[in-house]
Amino acid sequence: MKSIISLITVFAGLTTATPVPAPQTDTTAAGPYHISGFFASKAHLSSYCRFEFNITGPTLSGPVSCSAYLDTGFSGATWLAYVYQGVGNCNSDAVTWTFWHPRGAETDRNDAVFNVTVDGVKGTYVVPKEDIFVNLNDEGNPFDNDVSYAGPREFDITDFPVEE
Ligand SMILES: *[C@@H]1O[C@H](CO)[C@@H](O)[C@H](O)[C@H]1NC(C)=O
Ligand SMILES: *[C@@H]1O[C@H](CO)[C@@H](O)[C@H](O)[C@H]1NC(C)=O
């Protein structure tokens, strides 16, 4: 009998605790964009960079795969290739992206900016310079430098700049 009463009490408690839906305070049109498998690397002894990632977002019906394969112009580059608007590929027309890693001297590393636009809404993500690994390999050979992204492969883009 005691267990039945306590069961009823628990049940009553659950009923009264039914949450009233909180008002939506979403201030962005879309997002966050979830990035997974992010890869960016300049091949050894080559000037070419490969980029790959998958993205999911609130307006996308499923994951979209994106990639790019681009020339930095120099096998001794200490920066990743500039993925300008229009050269990044995705298997959905809803998604476009850019990646800009400013060139710096060997000792002067820079942050990179990764922008992803989904259905016309641009999200932006700063890749800290600490997450871009540069290896000069052979100090005597200026044509043999490796550059690769070494940060988390999975992250969210939550910054949606309002264009002026
Ligand atoms: C993207 O997702 C597909 C399907 O799950 C998977 O095969 C592919 O390896 C992923 N790409 C990356 C860069 O993680
Ligand atoms: C990425 O977005 C930022 C913020 O809006 C902008 O300043 C920058 O020019 C964009 N980068 C590219 C390559 O378009």
Class of secondary structure makeup: mainly beta
Distance between the termini: 69 Å
> Using DSSP, what is the number of strands?
10
Regions with little confidence, pLDDT below 50 for 5+ residues: 7-16, 22-27
The number of helices is 1
Quick structural summary:
With 164 residues, the chain is mainly beta. It contains 1 helix and 10 strands; from the N terminus they run αββββββββββ. It has one domain (32-157).
Protein described:
This protein has 164 residues and is mainly beta. The chain has one domain (32-157). Helices cover 9% and strands 37% of the residues. It has one helix spanning 2-16, and strands spanning 33-42, 48-56, 64-71, 89-90, 95-100, 112-118, 121-127, 132-135, 146-149, 155-157. Strands 1, 2, 3, 4, 8, 9 and 10 form a 7-stranded antiparallel beta sheet that branches. The protein has a 3-stranded antiparallel beta sheet with strand order 5-6-7, with no helix packed on it. The chain is elongated, with a radius of gyration of 23 Å. The chain binds 2-acetamido-2-deoxy-beta-D-glucopyranose (NAG) (2 copies). One 2-acetamido-2-deoxy-beta-D-glucopyranose (NAG) binds at residues 98, 100, 113, 115, 124, 161.
SSE blueprint:
Layout: H1 2-16, E1 33-42, E2 48-56, E3 64-71, E4 89-90, E5 95-100, E6 112-118, E7 121-127, E8 132-135, E9 146-149, E10 155-157
Antiparallel strand pairs: 1-2, 1-9, 1-10, 2-3, 3-4, 5-6, 6-7, 8-9
Bound molecules: 2-acetamido-2-deoxy-beta-D-glucopyranose (NAG) (2 copies).
The site of one 2-acetamido-2-deoxy-beta-D-glucopyranose has 8 residues, from strand 1 and strand 2.
